[in-house]
Design a protein that fits this description.
By secondary structure, this protein is α/β, with parallel strands linked by helices. It folds into 4 domains: 158 residues, 2-Layer Sandwich (Beta-Lactamase); 161 residues, 2-Layer Sandwich (Alpha-Beta Plaits); 248 residues, Alpha-Beta Barrel (TIM Barrel); 125 residues, Rossmann fold (3-Layer(aba) Sandwich). The protein contains 26 helices and 26 strands. Strands 13-14-16-17-18-19-20-21 form an 8-stranded mixed beta barrel, surrounded by 4 helices. Strands 2-1-5-4-3 form a 5-stranded antiparallel sheet, with helices on both faces. It has a 5-stranded mixed sheet with strand order 7-8-6-11-12, sandwiched between helices. A hairpin with a 2-residue loop joins strand 7 and strand 8. It is elongated and about 150 Å long. The N and C termini lie far apart (101 Å). The structure holds ligand C2E and magnesium ion (2 copies). The site of one magnesium ion has 4 residues, from loops. Ligand C2E binds next to strand 14, helix 13 and strand 18.
């Protein structure tokens, strides 16, 4: 239909133009009277056409316009009088670089007709998309004398097309380029890098902790967050670079032509910083970080998408490194991936073939010295790689979607084992099973626990589940509901690795848990780091207040054990008491009577007054001991601060005499720590030199009771120490006591 109409118009035009041409070329008017009438008719016809029509003289230089109809004026805003005599190109202004124009010139050269789409500009400067069809008109001699052009306004159609095209290439939420446009640009950047000899870099940016926010605060908040993330990322790159959204919380930054690899690192650093700033969404202040993988190339890749995969691998590494950091792709990551994939397959087989094992580590009650619980720890002796650390194993299981089967196996094995201990009368204690965050968030945790209890017939009270604070991130209310349901089943819940996560002591109040297990990073420094010691004391007193038990994990030395006991910690787990062991060994362990070293003097009723001497010179220690022995003190000696702290952790010491100048820390420094850890002790400095300022400061801050000079006067020393013990007794009676 349309083609037919076009042809008709075209025939009509041909006729009209031939007539007009005749008139324009000055043929005898008298001969043409009838023709003129006809011409008028044609002109009228052209003017009433809906399409813009222009006619140009092909025989004149620069092909001037010799006719333009009214529709042309309506369309372009130019009156015919303004355009007559000009070449049509003024319609494009300075937008001359158009594929349609090249095509047009080509057909003019061949004196052919053609239809092209052009960007033209109205008189007021606004853009108008025109479909232009031109046809040549030949005179009697067969020469092309004119061209007639028919202009169609296709602006609306073009706008729809552009919008569609934009939607096809952009992410609707953030307006950023999407995967398909990114891939186009990546391919173009590769070509450019190859031909111009530059480089390109791809940053794979994955947000940390977005999912829990999105799940718990709703998609509206999630969407706003993503829009802000997109805005911040775009602010960190140059105009020629591309920030694209791949979907979800994954973004790609394509740096076209970074000068050096460091440029990509700088951008990554800036993006990390920009994304870590707080987000104000509604009335909430939210926090996010990102993990970034970087891959660079000189463009010589058979498949540009490979670069995205490499950046993805590097991003995965960044996640493994604790998130909120960036990593660069290196070829050994390929090897790691291969190994990881292999591990997944092996793991699947291991679960099916029952090749995994549980080791058991006892927890000991501080008062009775009895085993009160046993933690089940996963072990896998891989046929080629040996023991795989459980954390890696659990991660591999999560990646492979195997966490469900793996956990079901662990739960069942642990319950069955514990039920056997119970039935055989070996122990009546709880078995503790670790529950990973991913498992906790699965719908069927409750069902899985119930099934394990039913199948093993273990009483629910003898199962403890160890969770970490991460399960509360995001959807805390949902997590609390799950814990409540678990408690209704009768199982106990333990908060594991306490102190490493984000939650505060305050949070403890609202959580339905039975025990808190303090992370071993605290225990490690407990006898020497006053901050950790104070935190631990705080945790214990709050936990007791909330009727929660406190377990210390990673207790490795006797000093740690005694110190923790002294500050009322309930339970202990660690190499000092027992290593994790296979069940045969555990059975032996349970049968063997145990003797835990109790602190010196603890059960002896009347405790002798105890004095600790610290000096890095052993002959000084010997001389001091000789003098002070006469007064029947219990005298303990140490040649370094660390040993002294161990002694303090394990013994009731009332008076301490410390040298001032020692290699690892000064006497005043040591005594200031002791003051925080054991405020009731009475502390004396014995020094060979006088740094008056340090000493007076220490005395003024109450860290030091007396300051004595070397060499000392024996009688004076004995009298000061006796005074110090009287002072200590007073403090004790006043209600102190560490
Ligand atoms: P966790 O639950 O905090 O377990 C305690 C870890 O500390 C165990 O490491 C244990 O062997 C180790 N440990 C115990 N006493 C000491 C000590 O005195 N010093 C030191 N340095 N370490 C000590 P392991 O067995 O390598 O397990 C590591 C983590 O893997 C566990 O930390 C737990 O989070 C996870 N895990 C273990 N088994 C399972 C499991 O069956 N399922 C899940 N989801 N996670 C598990
Ligand atoms: Mg644990
Ligand atoms: Mg732990």
């Amino acid at each position: 239909m349309i083609e037919e109409a076009k042809e008709k118009i075209s025939d009509y035009l041909r006729l009209a133009v031939a007539q007009i041409a005749r008139v324009l070329s000055g043929q005898s008017v008298s001969r043409q009277r009838g023709a003129e009438q006809q011409l008028h008719l044609f002109r009228h016809g052209l003017d009433s056409a809906r399409n813009g029509i222009v006619i140009c003289d092909a025989l004149e230089k620069d092909m001037p316009i010799v006719f333009a109809n009214s529709a042309f004026e309506r369309m372009t805003g130019y009156a015919p009088a303004e355009v007559l005599g000009r070449n049509c190109r003024f319609l494009q202004r300075d937008d001359g670089d158009q594929p349609g124009l090249a095509e047009l010139r080509d057909s003019l050269r061949r004196q052919d007709g053609v239809t092209v789409v052009l960007r033209n500009y109205r008189r007021d400067g606004s853009l108008i998309w025109n479909e232009l069809s031109i046809s040549p008109i030949r005179n009697e001699r067969g020469l092309v004398s004119h061209y007639v052009g028919v202009l169609n306004d296709v602006t609306e159609q073009k706008r729809c097309e552009t919008e569609l095209n934009h939607n096809f290439h952009h992410d609707r939420l953030t307006g950023l380029p999407n995967r398909s446009l990114l891939e186009e640009r990546l391919a173009a950047a590769c070509t450019a890098a190859r031909t111009r000899g530059g480089r390109l870099a791809v940053l794979f940016v994955d947000l940390d902790g977005f999912k829990p926010i999105n799940d718990s605060m709703g998609h509206k908040v999630g969407d706003e967050l993503l829009v802000e993330v997109a805005r911040r990322m775009t602010g960190q790159v140059r105009s020629g670079d591309t920030v694209a959204r791949m979907g979800g919380d994954e973004f790609i930054v394509l740096l076209a032509g970074p000068g050096r690899q460091e440029d990509a690192l700088c951008v990554a650093e800036r993006v990390l910083q920009a994304l870590a700033l707080p987000y104000e969404i509604g009335h909430n202040e939210l926090h996010l970080t990102a993990s970034i993988g970087i891959a660079t190339s000189d463009g010589c890749l058979d498949d540009p998408a490979k670069l995205l995969q490499q950046a993805d691998l590097a991003m995965y590494r960044a996640k493994q490194q604790g998130r909120n950091n960036f990593q660069c792709y290196t070829s050994n990551l390929d090897e790691e991936t291969r190994q990881r994939l292999e591990l997944r397959n092996d793991l699947r087989r291991a679960i099916e073939q029952d090749a995994l094992e549980l080791y058991y580590q006892p927890q000991i009650d501080g008062r009775s010295g009895r085993v009160v619980a046993i933690e089940a720890l996963l072990r896998w002796n891989h046929p080629e790689r040996g023991f795989i650390p459980p954390a890696e194993l659990v991660q591999a299981a999560e990646d492979a979607g195997q966490i469900g089967p793996l956990s079901a196996w662990v739960l069942h094995a642990a319950c069955a084992f514990n039920n056997r201990l119970l039935k055989e009368g070996q122990a009546n204690v709880a078995v503790a099973v670790n529950i990973s965050g991913a498992l906790f968030r699965m719908d069927n945790l409750l069902g899985m626990v119930r099934a394990a209890l039913e199948r093993s017939t273990l009483p629910a009270a003898l199962l403890e589940l160890e969770i970490t604070e991460s399960v509360f991130l995001g959807n805390a209310e949902g997590a609390i509901a799950t814990l409540q349901a678990l408690r209704e089943l009768g199982v106990k819940v333990v908060l594991d690795d306490f102190g490493t996560g984000l939650s505060s002591l305050n949070n403890l109040k609202r959580l339905p848990i039975n025990k808190v297990k303090v992370d071993r990073s605290f225990i490690k420094t407990i006898i020497s780091d006053r901050h950790d010691a104070a935190v631990m004391q705080g945790i214990i007193s709050l936990a007791h207040h909330l009727q929660l038990q406190v377990v210390a994990e990673g207790v490795e030395t006797e000093a740690q054990y005694h110190f923790l006991k002294k500050i009322q910690c309930d339970c202990f787990q660690g190499y000092f008491l027992a290593y994790p062991m296979p069940y045969e060994d555990l059975e032996l362990f349970l049968r063997k009577p145990r003797e835990l070293g109790s602190p010196v003097g603890e059960e002896s009723g009347g405790k002798p007054p105890t004095l600790l001497l610290l000096d890095d010179e052993e002959n000084i220690l010997r001389a001091l001991t000789r003098v002070l022995r006469r007064d029947r003190y219990e005298i303990l000696v140490a040649t370094n601060a660390h040993a002294a702290l161990e002694i303090l952790a394990m013994n009731e010491v009332q008076v301490i005499i410390s040298d001032q100048r020692m290699p690892e820390m000064s006497g005043t420094e040591f005594l200031s720590r002791v003051k925080d850890l054991y405020p009731d002790t009475v502390r004396i400095v014995l020094s060979g030199y006088t740094d008056l300022k340090t000493i007076t400061d220490a005395i003024n801050q109450g860290e030091v009771y007396k300051f004595l000079l070397k060499p000392w006067d024996d009688d004076n020393l004995r009298s000061v120490v006796a005074q110090a013990f009287r002072q200590a007794a007073q403090v004790q009676n006043a209600g102190g006591g560490a």
